[in-house]
Amino acid sequence: MPPNPTPNRFMTILAVDDDEEDIEIFMEAVRDIDSSIVCMVARSADEALAILNSDMDLPAFIFLDVNMPKVDGNICLREIKKDKRFSNIPVIMYSTYTGKREMEAYRQLGVGYLVKQNSYNELVNELRRVLGKD
Known about the structure:
- By secondary structure, the protein is of the alpha/beta class.
- It is built from five helices and five strands.
- Mean pLDDT is 88; it is low at 1-8.
């Protein structure tokens, strides 16, 4: 009988955002929370889907920007939700817009919503909560 594979000791997350500054701030906040978290980055929905469909290990969480050019986060979310391989990965929509109707629609889909915070400390606190690191 072959040995059991060694479990991944590190949490991996996928951050999908076309805004370079937002990605840098997000990654810095993740590092401040837990430097062992591996943060993969996709700068478009197409790139995110390519990462998910690659041979790489699946992330523990997907943070998906709502407003991206070409293919927005909502379309990307639909593609992710269509694939049963990704059904156990929590998806957190990530945006500056906080419309109650949109937040309720995400909640109905079992998807989280995280507001892009104006304060770095607020971002860290929200990410801690979502990642279970508080």
